[in-house]
Specification:
alpha+beta, four-stranded mixed beta sheet
């Protein structure tokens, strides 16, 4: 069991960290990101931005809202962009609590399977745990059809 939740660090508070871009209106996503933040509290390798934060478009204008709604993004310290299952795969190399999953997610030729599984969960994330705000039309149509 994890200790008290830690505050999610913003990129300006942790400028040398990888940036995890997640759906801040999704309870499943926010719970997952909170676990990452707790596991990273000593290392300070990660910072976090909700895709709904205007700073995302200021920092990453090449990423569209529709892209960001489909999967988690991690922008590493070198500026490389990791998405979905590949982003999770990358995080297994960054956080000691996830090191044990590294051999599993890096099985040769397994990324297509992990990507498919990730997309299935991402597509149903609001149905799994709900939203933190009321539905706003298109978002609910995408995830509750």
């Amino acid at each position: 069991m994890d200790a008290q939740p830690v505050k999610l660090r913003l990129p300006r508070e942790n400028p040398g960290g990888d940036i995890v871009i997640y759906d801040g209106r999704c309870k499943f996503c926010t719970a997952s990101v909170q676990k990452l933040a707790n596991w990273d509290s000593a290392n300070r390798k990660l910072s976090f931005l909700s895709l709904h934060d205007p700073e995302v478009q200021n920092r990453f204008p090449q990423l569209t809202y529709d892209q960001l709604m489909k999967e988690m993004y991690v922008v590493d310290r070198r500026g490389r962009i990791h998405t979905g299952a590949e982003a999770f795969r990358y995080l297994t190399t960054q956080l000691p609590r996830l090191y044990l999953l590294c051999p599993l997610v890096y099985i040769p030729f397994s990324l297509p399977f992990w990507s498919w599984a990730y997309r299935q969960i991402a597509r149903r994330r609001y149905a799994i745990m709900g939203k933190t705000v009321d539905c706003d039309g298109d978002v609910c149509r995408i995830h509750f059809k």
